[in-house]
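Q: Could you fold this chain for me?
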Amino acid sequence: MTDYLIVASLGMAGFLVLWPISLIRRDASIVDFWWGPGFAVMVATMWILSGASMDPHAQAIVALILVWGLRLGVVLGRRRIREGVEDGRYREMREFRGTSFWWKSLFMVFVLQGVLQVLLSLGALAAVRQPDAPVGPLMILGTMIALAGFTIEAISDRQLDKFRRDTPHGGLLTTGLRAIVRYPSYLGEVLFWWGIALIAVEIGVLWAPLNAAAQTWILMRLSGVTILDRRLGETRPGHAEYRDRVPALVPNLRTRFLRGAAGPHGQ
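A: Sure. Below is the predicted structure, expressed as structure tokens.
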């Protein structure tokens, strides 16, 4: 239990450090800096505290989350620095809460994300503490799915960032991966965590898919697809038609590649 408290404290500390910086910058979206790296730090720390197991399952989980988390932190950090404006999701919260947002953001944004990060990481944290186990089909399949998700997310972010640079005045990105699904970054993240869950199941953490299911629900209903569809529908001409033709996360092989279009955002 002590090990879990240590890694949870590390994860939460990252968010708490960012909160006063967000007040200075008037940009609560810098909370996203720590989302990926926080997972990486917690899982790596748990692995070390539990004896740095040489089990292939534990090593695969640590390596995958380290690479995924650090890449995501760099991408989101560069995005915030380059764009220099608060992400629309947090800007809406700021406008709705008014002058009280500065202190409410500590709990509604930073502490909340810290709690979610700990809860969603529990399967991976438990897995790296398990005794050694022989490599089986779930380890191989889970690694392949996680790598596929990582690759989709990386390509999606590159396409989105290039589009934002080329079209700084807004629009709707519907080409590339977004001709197949509206939110390929979310698809990649969902696949990544289901891959991690499969690896964890093979080493004995049978409840790990609950974390992946929770991550999927959050991206679909709480902080991802639902919010972005609403916001893009209000701010990006053509989004309603695009939404009707292209699925959010699950590719439809009959969906035609949409042409044209212009402008950032989408995930």
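A (continued): Confidence is low (pLDDT under 50) at residues 255-267.
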